[in-house]
Amino acid sequence: MAAPVTRVGILLSGRGSNMMALVEQASGYEIALVASDKPDAAGIGWARKHGLATFFQSPKGIPKADYEAAIDAALDANEVEIIALAGYMRLLSDDFVARWRGKIINIHPSLLPKYKGLDTHARAIEAGDAVAGCSVHVVTEELDGGEVLGQAEVPILPGDTPDTLATRVLAAEHRLYPRVLAEFCAR
Ligand code: GRF
After folding, report:
1. Atom of ligand 1 nearest to the CA of 109
2. What is the pLDDT of residues 120-166, one digit of tens each?
């Protein structure tokens, strides 16, 4: 009998290049929903064009609990089992994380536990690091603090700026995330 295919929901806020990599390299999982907190997120337009189920809910002007309840309902309606954050620029509440405990993963552009939070590439260059990279981790209540499931390294080259380094790391993200998500769904 074929192994069951895990239904994954993606939350994003922006261009969605990691979402595209997850869609294009899907194996052992399928993308059941792409949800955004921004109506004009480029990623949501791409997902729609590619025939994926999409959902948008603005967080503006409503309590965070109501906003998250709407996301939750859309995830449930699409029978999502695992959530993959892909450039989702909003902190999930402790309640939401608790409801989905152990079932939310994220990609972060640093070699965790180094450089949690923002401006990771500038901080790595500033520190004089020889390597940078990205990490896929389980989402917990602690920002960028959950179990690291996989990492990829890239060199930091002389003359690198945060932008040139970000481009190199992003290419590594697109290889790492689909592989680690597939492994996570299989475990
Ligand atoms: C990526 O650098 C990812 O590591 C971080 O947000 C960025 C999202 O980029 N969490 P994209 O929207 O997937 O292109």
Report:
1. 4
2. 999 999 999 999 999 999 999 999 999 999 999 999 999 999 999 99
Q: Is 108 a catalytic residue?
A: yes
Cis? peptide before 113, omega within 30° of 0: yes
Ligand 1 — pocket residues by CB below 6 A?
12, 14-18, 43, 86-87, 107-109, 134, 170, 173
Per-residue model confidence (pLDDT) at position 106: 98
Structure tokens at 110: 């640093």
- Does the pTM surpass 0.85? The reply is yes
4's CB contacts (< 8 A; 6+ apart) are: none
Contact 136, 177 (CB under 8 A): yes
| Per-residue CA distances from 19 to 30, 65, 86, 119, 142 (Å) | 12, 25, 6, 21, 23
DSSP 54-78: EEE---TTS-HHHHHHHHHHHHHHT
CA angle 101, 114, 147 (to 5 degrees): 25
Domains parsed from the chain with CATH numbers: 6-185 (3.40.50.170)
Contacts of residues 96-102 at CB distance under 8 Å and 24 or more positions apart, as own/partner, are: 96/68, 96/71, 96/72, 97/139, 97/140, 97/141, 98/141, 99/72, 102/138
